[in-house]
Structures are given as structure tokens and as C-alpha cells.
Specification:
This protein has 364 residues and is an alpha+beta fold. Helices cover 28% and strands 16% of the residues. It is built from eleven helices and eleven strands. β7 and β8 form a beta hairpin. The chain is globular and about 60 Å long. The two termini are 36 Å apart.
Length: 364
């Protein structure tokens, strides 16, 4: 049964002895974004119906007849326009950038690389920042900030500037205010085994920082398959049946052996490695986690209303000219940046009684 039905309805057997007969009553109310994410597993001959057909089930969109023109069913709009309009409307309505993390539920843009080639944001047939209709609902577990409740607050108590959302002349562009806080200097495989001593001990600042980063890594990549984020049901059952050692030493030995075995196999066959090159460092020494689509020299920003930092890339024209003033940017996705997950950029300016020096980023 698709997860959407299980979330929306209380389904039970009508009679204990007749399992074929079932009755369904409306269960809990869900926000429209969560309805659409659960609906990713459904088939639709027209992708626009992955929004239009589900509006009636959303808590804030159930009165379809009174919806604004932005999200009211309109089949004269292109697929890209429908999803871009919905994304912009959701940001303005909820005063949050949570929906931007939904790009990581789309095929080719997940945190865990699922094929040899990730999607190139420069070649997408829709806005790089927009919710999209492909992907799987259970991939939502492998994001930093798509859950309704997250432990991060990178932009503090700020909200998106709703006036900016209406200023763009191109419906496939999005204007957001924020701060550039860094640039990716290098990307390498995650140091899973190099600092494990810090994970269980926060006796020093470095240990505490790595512990938080490691928890984010585990939440994203589910390396022991405890949640089945990236595996099929059959694989998950087999992995759950596998005996895991009781001691930390045995666990470490088996994990290293597993990593080396797959690393050797990958080098010979071109298969996807178990551990993605997701660990980056900025010029000032801050560490972080980035999705596979990220590249060195991409910039890191904190945007008003965002609970996590994000990665942007200047469009091809600006990248060639080297002039990024007034540039357009591709939205690569969310990221984890050490020291910036809990409003540091906001607190620093408030502490120094400085006016916030923000920029407007134009996303395409």
C-alpha cells in the first residue's frame, strides 16, 4: 500500500473474519507538502497531477475552489511552471525554506549516489530549486532539513522576504536574501574511521564538533541500514538478519573490512562506492558535508528562513566571466557546515550591533 494512503486514512478490516473487506476513515491532517512527498510513490500519466490531484488532501489546500491562481489546477501551465509556482507559494505561505530540501528526493540529486552519474543542475529541464515529481518518498529520510522538525536553525529567527518572491519576472527564477559564509575548497571521502575516538567523547571542542557532524552523516547515509533509507525491502531484511558485533572494536574491524572490500571492487568494476565523497573543507578550516552534485569552488550560503546552509553555483555565464555581482545561481542543495548550523551568522552580527549585510541571490 502506498504510504500516502496509510498516512491519510485509518484502514482496518471491516470484519475480523473477512480480510478482503476493509473500511477507511479519514485519519490525521497533513500539510500539502507532506501529502505530495508521500504521493511520490504513486504513478501519474500527467506529472502535474502529483500536485493538482492531491490538493484536496492538504490541510491548507483542501478548499480547492478558493486557492490562489499560483497553485489552482491549471493544465495550460508547463510541468516545470506548475512545480516552480507551488514551491514559491509554499515558501511564501509557510515563511520557510524547508521545501528546498525536497530537491534531494529527486532522481539523480539524492545525498546517496544511486547511479554512476548524478544529475547536472545546469542541464535540468526545470528550476534547480524546485520540488519535482520523480523520486521516492522514503528518500525523504536521507535529508538534513525536509522533516517538519529539524535540530538546526542556521538562519536563526529570520524569515524569507516575501516581497522578493513576487519581484522576479521569470517564474522559473527565485529571489532569496541571505549571506555568503564560505566556499568549498576541497571535497574528499568522509573520514569515517579516522576520528571514531571523538564520536563517543565530547571532552574537547573538536570532539563535540565531529560528534555533531558524524550524527548528521549517519542520519543522511544510514551506513548500517538501520532505517532502510537507501535499500530495497529485500536488502533491508537481509541486512537486519546479519549479526552485528557487540563490541566497538569488532564493529570497527568489520566496518573497515567491509569498506576496503567494496573499495577494491569499485576500483576494478566502476561500481558505486559505499562511502560517498561528501566531506568538504573551507579555506578557513571549517568542515562540512555536501551532496554528490557539489563541486569545489561552489559557494555556501545561509538564506533567510533556512534551517540549514545551502550550496550554490554561479551560472555558466558568470562562471566564465568571473563576475558574480548580480549573478544567477544554480541551487545545488542543502549542506552541513561546522559552526553554522545554529544561527552563528545572525548571532555574530547581533552581538557586534552591526546591521546585517545581506545579499539577494537569484536562483535559476
Amino acid at each position: 500500500m502506498p504510504s500516502l494512503f496509510a498516512e491519510l486514512f485509518d484502514i482496518r478490516d471491516a470484519e475480523p473474519s473477512v480480510t478482503q473487506l476493509r473500511c477507511a476513515t479519514r485519519g490525521k491532517n497533513l500539510g500539502i507538502l507532506d501529502v505530495i512527498l508521500h504521493g511520490l510513490d504513486l504513478d501519474a500519466t500527467d506529472p502535474r497531477d502529483k500536485i493538482f490531484a492531491l490538493l484536496t488532501f492538504g490541510e491548507e489546500t483542501s478548499d480547492v475552489g478558493n486557492l490562489t491562481a499560483e497553485i489552482r489546477p491549471d493544465y495550460t501551465k508547463s510541468i516545470a511552471r506548475v512545480f516552480a509556482d507551488f514551491t514559491r507559494w509554499w515558501i511564501a505561505t509557510h515563511r520557510s525554506l524547508r521545501i528546498l530540501s525536497a530537491v534531494h528526493v529527486s532522481l539523480g540529486r539524492t545525498w546517496q549516489r544511486l547511479s554512476q552519474q548524478s544529475a547536472f543542475v545546469e542541464d535540468l529541464d526545470h528550476a534547480s530549486w524546485s520540488l519535482w515529481h520523480d523520486g521516492k518518498n522514503f528518500w525523504t529520510r536521507g535529508t538534513l532539513a525536509l522533516s517538519p522538525t529539524v535540530p538546526y536553525s542556521a538562519s536563526g529567527d529570520t524569515f524569507p522576504d516575501t516581497s522578493l518572491l513576487l519581484q522576479t519576472r521569470n517564474p522559473l527564477e527565485l529571489l532569496l536574501r541571505g549571506y555568503e559564509v564560505g566556499v568549498i575548497e576541497l571535497i574528499r571521502p568522509y573520514p569515517f574511521y579516522l576520528k571514531t575516538a571523538h564520536v563517543r567523547s565530547c571532552g574537547n571542542p573538536e570532539g563535540c564538533q565531529y560528534n555533531a557532524l558524524h550524527e548528521a552523516f549517519v542520519g543522511l547515509f544510514d551506513p548500517l541500514d538501520s532505517r532502510g533509507t537507501w535499500t530495497s525491502g529485500i536488502q533491508q531484511d537481509r541486512l537486519k538478519a546479519f549479526h552485528r558485533p557487540d563490541t566497538a572494536e569488532e564493529t570497527s574491524e568489520k566496518s573497515i573490512d567491509h569498506f576496503l572490500t567494496h573499495n577494491e571492487y569499485s576500483s576494478k568494476t566502476g561500481a558505486i562506492g559505499c562511502h560517498e565523497s561528501c566531506f568538504f573543507r573551507t579555506p578557513d578550516g571549517a568542515d562540512g558535508l555536501c551532496p554528490p552534485a557539489a563541486r569545489e569552488k561552489d559557494i555556501i550560503v545561509v538564506l533567510h528562513g533556512g534551517s540549514v546552509p545551502y550550496i550554490l553555483r554561479p551560472s555558466r555565464e558568470e562562471a566564465r566571466s568571473g563576475d558574480t555581482s548580480g549573478a544567477q545561481y544554480y541551487f545545488i542543495g542543502e549542506c552541513y557546515l561546522q559552526g553554522y548550523m545554529h544561527g552563528r551568522i545572525i548571532k555574530e552580527h547581533q552581538k557586534e550591533n552591526q546591521s546585517l549585510s545581506t545579499r539577494i541571490f537569484e536562483l535559476v
